[in-house]
Amino acid sequence: MYQLFLYVHIICAVIWVGGALYAQLLALRVTRSSDPSELPHLARHVEFIGARVFMPAALLLFVAGTAMTLQAWSFGQTWIAVSVALWVLSAVVGAVYLGPRVKRAAELFEAEGPTSQEGLELINRLFVVSRLELIWFAVVIALMTFKPGA
């Protein structure tokens, strides 16, 4: 069972982290586009995928990680405790900050048009927070790979 949980854990990490990286790369490209309508479309797509792909992948990743920890590890190990803390931070940031604000940005673009200054400022702040999230994803991946103290 451990191998099955490990497989699910890794697949979900690839979906979540790879998707977040792809969204950032796409955001960089879209923000440099001469077509102002691309950014509102991106915001709507990110909102849709975040709720229907990233969130379930993150939850399943946590469930599989918990099952593996119960079978072979301990939540008291530093590499696991820090990884869980960063997962919780990411889940809270996604649910409380990123998700609602990307939806708000999309609504602003729909109401005010693709050049909405408030929408642009909001989406740029979201990109910064999302980039910071990618950094702590890299930390979690390093912890999972090297398992310091294990």
Task: Give short descriptive properties of this protein.
single chain; 150 residues; mainly alpha; 4 helices
Structure description:
By secondary structure, the chain is mostly helical. Helix content is 87%, strand content 0%. It has four helices and no strands. The radius of gyration is 17 Å and the shape is elongated. The protein starts with a helix and ends with a helix. The mean pLDDT is 94.
Tell me the radius of gyration: 17 Å
Strand content: under 5%
Mean pLDDT: 94
Specify the biggest β-sheet. none
Helix content: over 70%
How many beta-strand segments? 0
Structural class, by secondary structure, is mainly alpha
Order of helices and strands: HHHH
The N- and C-terminal alpha carbons lie at a distance of 21 Å
Name the overall outline.
elongated
Number of helices: 4
**Which blocks of ≥5 consecutive residues have pLDDT under 50?**
none
Oligomer: single chain
Structural topology:
Blueprint: H1 2-31, H2 38-72, H3 78-112, H4 117-146
